[in-house]
Structure formats: structure tokens, C-alpha cells
Design goal:
Length: 417
């Protein structure tokens, strides 16, 4: 049986705590501009320019940006919002919390994104909007989805939380929909200790967005600084120097004892649908960090795209291994490297022993979840993907040589699984 070679342990993600990011944090604290300051408006302008739309508004999270979008649509209770079945559960949960109906649409097994044919088949007379989600730095087939939406008079929303900086045929993700939202949570390719942004091109909808946001408050500075502190700790224990000495041995011990506690800490739990108690706007400290990261985004995306290409080439043709394929014309921001694998649990154990920290799958097959039982629909592709997906390490923190070594370790682990 081939032996899986062990070398320097690699974390699944690493928090971007570059000197420029730390300097931005220190600048905000030093100038007492943690919450209010001039950088939010500048970051909004730069994000709008990057996406190629006239409007942007910073919020305290991606889901609060989505909440703002849903409120601006002024839908009636019971109206339908079409949403991919394979997504973060918190997204359809917000649709439910708003008194609307999530209409789940199965995904295309080849792309892992909303299947346009399934979308057309799922539309009912109560449907008012479709949310197209771009996952793992890939993209939904926006050209087909927008054509279908136009035929059925649906508003198009885009969830760009995982694909900031991606485009299709040169047109940025986030510019296809009437409104689109981004997330700057830890682990994203722009991460600002939390935060989100809504962007839009429709003047009438945007005037409603602005009116609603005027009633939103600022973030609590103490809570934001606590989030900064937590992220600094996460950054330290996932750094190249400390991961092998801290989190990695803890993960291995957990795996040996059959205790998934630590692992669960890194995956969001499903909670019952509820509206956020106090949705708030982006803070100046977050915008400072966002400006630093937005400037570096093209290099970060080019780097993670190159890593993904190395892994993809190395894993090509292995029986049972499937990698989601980008839709035609997509230029990717491939931050998350998802692959479908056989024997996932065993493979994860082998990879962890070989120094590779992986994630089982932090998305959901929503129709399988108890909280969505009244809206469940058969979505076999989504269920299959959720049961077999494995997230391999990728990110700006890896060198090409790390990725080649990683690919070899995955090949070895698969050969012996
Ligand atoms: C696909 C997707 N949608 C929405 C969100 C929500 O963003 P946030 O965590 O900033 O609220 C996330 C982030 O985790 C996500 O991955």
C-alpha cells in the first residue's frame, strides 16, 4: 500500500494579516476612527468602480446586505424567491425570516451552480426574484439566468460572497443583477473582520436601499474590536509558523479521539430563521482594511486561480474525483478548492495524518434541512455534491511548491483510501 508522505502541515485557510492590514487596524484605533470615519465612502466608491455599477453601500455583514436587498424589493408575504438548493443555509433562512417563500432550485452537477433548466421549471406565479449564488470563486451562468428572469419578469439578485473580483466574458460578477451583495467575513478573499457590501445599478431600487439604510445604526466598537481580537488569534494559529505547533496537533488529537468539536468550530451551524436584531452599517476600521485588500485583489485572485489550475491538472482522471467546472467565459476568483471525492471521511483522516487540513463541506443541501422542510424539493445533484465535497487548502498563503506537494499528498491519500 503506498505510504502518504508527510511534510509541513497546511491549514485549510489563513487569515490575511499582512503588515498593511495590521497598519490599517492600528491607524483606525490610533485615530479613534473605529466606527466612523472617511474610509467607508471611499471603499464603497472603489467597490462600485470594480464591479462597474453606480452604487455601493457597506453593511456589517453579507447577510445584512442581503436583508437590505430583500427589504428594498418590497415583496408581499408569501412571495417566492428562487434560490439554489446548494448554498449557505443562512441565506434561504433570511428569506424565510422575511415571511417570503424560498423556492429551491437544483444545481448543475458539472458546475455545482444553479441549473438554468431547473430554474425555469421551478418558477411559479408567486415568484418575484431569483438569487444567483456564485460559489468557491466560480460563477453562476448569469447570461442564461438573466434571460430566463427577463422572460418571467423576475428581479435578479446575486450572492457574490465567495466570488469577489470574478467576471464572465469580462463583465464583473455583481453587475448582472439589479442588486448584488458581497461578504468580507474571515476566510473571504477580502476579509475585514466581518462586513459586507450591497451594490446596485437600478436607480429606483437604490433610492429605497438608501432610505432603509438611513434607519440602520453603527456597529458597537467594543464588539468590533473583540472580533478583531478573535481574528488575530485565528490568524496566529493558522500562520505557517504556528499552525504545525498549535491547531494542527489539536485537530489530530480531536480526530484520534473521534471528537469533531474543533472541526465544528470552523463550520457555521444551522440555526432557525430569524431576522438580525440590529443590522448595522460597515465600520471605518473595516473599510480601511477593505481598501488595502481591494488593491491586492487581482494578484490574490490570479494566485489562487493558478493554484487551482495546478491542483486540477494533478487530480485529472482519478476515478471518482470530480472538480466543479466553471461556466463558459468565466474569469475566476477561485479561492475555495472544492472537489468531489469518494470515501470522504476516510480520505480526510488520511490527509490530516499527512499534514493536510481539509473541510468536509460548509455549504448545505438546503432541502435536506429540517428548518426548510415546508419548502423542500427533490434536488438530487445538490444532495450528492453536499455528501461528497471536500475543500482542500487554497489561498494567498500558499506557494506554488506547497500546492504541488499538496496535490501529491491528495493523490497518495486517494490511492490508499
Ligand atoms: C455563499 C455565501 N452567502 C452569504 C454569506 C453571508 O455572508 P456573511 O457571513 O458576511 O453574513 C456567505 C458567507 O459566509 C457565503 O459564503
Amino acid at each position: 500500500m503506498p505510504r502518504v508522505v508527510r511534510s509541513r502541515p497546511l491549514p485549510r485557510h489563513q487569515v490575511n494579516l499582512s503588515p498593511a492590514v495590521l497598519q490599517a487596524v492600528a491607524g483606525a484605533i490610533g485615530r479613534r476612527q473605529v466606527v466612523c470615519g472617511p474610509h467607508v465612502a471611499l471603499f464603497e466608491q472603489r467597490m462600485a468602480a470594480m464591479v462597474g455599477v453606480p452604487h455601493a453601500l457597506g453593511t456589517s455583514s453579507g447577510r445584512n446586505a442581503f436583508l437590505l436587498a430583500l427589504r428594498a424589493l418590497e415583496l408581499e408575504p408569501g412571495d417566492g424567491v428562487l434560490v439554489p438548493d446548494y448554498t449557505l443555509a443562512a441565506v434561504p433562512a433570511l428569506i424565510v425570516a422575511m415571511g417570503l417563500e424560498p423556492v429551491f432550485v437544483d444545481v448543475d452537477p458539472a458546475t455545482h451552480h444553479m441549473d438554468p433548466e431547473a430554474l425555469e421549471a421551478a418558477i411559479t406565479p408567486r415568484c418575484r426574484a431569483v438569487l444567483a449564488t456564485h460559489l468557491f470563486g466560480l460563477a453562476s451562468d448569469m447570461e442564461r439566468i438573466c434571460a430566463i428572469a427577463q422572460r418571467h419578469s423576475l428581479v435578479v439578485l446575486e450572492d457574490c460572497a465567495q466570488s469577489c473580483g470574478g467576471s464572465i466574458h469580462g463583465r464583473a460578477l455583481g453587475s448582472f443583477g439589479h442588486l448584488a451583495f458581497f461578504s468580507f467575513n474571515t476566510g473571504k478573499n477580502i476579509s475585514c473582520f466581518g462586513g459586507g457590501m450591497l451594490v446596485g445599478r437600478d436607480p429606483e431600487l437604490w433610492s429605497r436601499v438608501v432610505a432603509i439604510a438611513q434607519g440602520w445604526g453603527r456597529q458597537d466598537p467594543a464588539a468590533l474590536l473583540a472580533a478583531v481580537g478573535r481574528t488575530l488569534v485565528t490568524g496566529a494559529i493558522t500562520s505557517r509558523a504556528l499552525f504545525p505547533l498549535t491547531l494542527y496537533p489539536a485537530l489530530r488529537l480531536g480526530a484520534r479521539l473521534g471528537n469533531q468539536g474543533l472541526d465544528r468550530l470552523m463550520v457555521e451551524e444551522v440555526t432557525p430563521p430569524a431576522l438580525p436584531a440590529s443590522p448595522a452599517l460597515l465600520a471605518d476600521l473595516q473599510a480601511r482594511v477593505g481598501l488595502v485588500q481591494l488593491e491586492r485583489l487581482p494578484q490574490v485572485n490570479a494566485r489562487t486561480r493558478r493554484h487551482a489550475a495546478i491542483l486540477e491538472a494533478a487530480l485529472q482522471g482519478i476515478p471518482g474525483v470530480r472538480i466543479p467546472q466553471p461556466s463558459e467565459g468565466a474569469e475566476l476568483a477561485r479561492f475555495y478548492m472544492k472537489v468531489e471525492v469518494p470515501h470522504r471521511a476516510e480520505l480526510r483522516r488520511r490527509l490530516l495524518r499527512a499534514g493536510v487540513d481539509t473541510n468536509a463541506d460548509d455549504m448545505f443541501a438546503c432541502s435536506e434541512l429540517e428548518i426548510f422542510r415546508p419548502w423542500a424539493r427533490p434536488c438530487p445533484a445538490s444532495s450528492h455534491i453536499h455528501a461528497h465535497s471536500l475543500e482542500l487548502p487554497n489561498g494567498f498563503h500558499l506557494e506554488d511548491a506547497d500546492v504541488r506537494a499538496l496535490a501529491q499528498r491528495v493523490r497518495d491519500a486517494l490511492a490508499s483510501a
